Amino acid sequence: IHSDGFSRTLLTLSTTKRNIDPAWSPDGGKIAFTTYREGNAEIYYMNADGSVQTAITNNLDPDQQPSWSSDGTELVFVSTTGTNADIFKTKPNGQNLERLTFLSGSDKAPLWSPDGTKILFVSGRDGDDEIFMMNTDGTGQRQLTANSATDGDPVWSPDGSWIAFVSDRDGQEDIYLMDVNGYGTEGSGSSPTRLTSDSGRDFSPAWQPASS
Description:
By secondary structure, this protein is an all-beta fold. Helices cover 0% and strands 39% of the residues.
């Protein structure tokens, strides 16, 4: 769809199977997405016009939530075995598959940083959803939020130095802002700032694109 709301183009066509989680490649030429067309959630990609839809994953475990690297050469995604979800990395052709997280508790919502050096993700490894960050090879995993509430929906600022996210720590879902430069866990110099405080639910934050 164009930004004016007109000229809508149907990219996937299915009356019974869902196609969700679309993610544009950095150059705008491809779209990765999750599809249930094979009866199980798998990651596909297609050209921006919907043509040449190609499978990236093909296994018995549900795969979903794809996110492109900043150079478009790799993707991260979530794969679930039983009740546990972990984050994996792969090439768009499905080669060089690498598991990045191994701990108990589901890891989800991976998002590559703008400079290609870090991956944000949400983990339930401590009993409730918290936001973590790691290097692109899975090393250096650091917890960014630490509280008894649910934190999620993290998104990078265009320069990669801040994240916006959703938390119900104050009794309702609101948007918060955190500086991640120091890699400090919440309470050690990187406490988040609350941005919304109305009586309704606020979620799905998005950043204004950087000006050219």
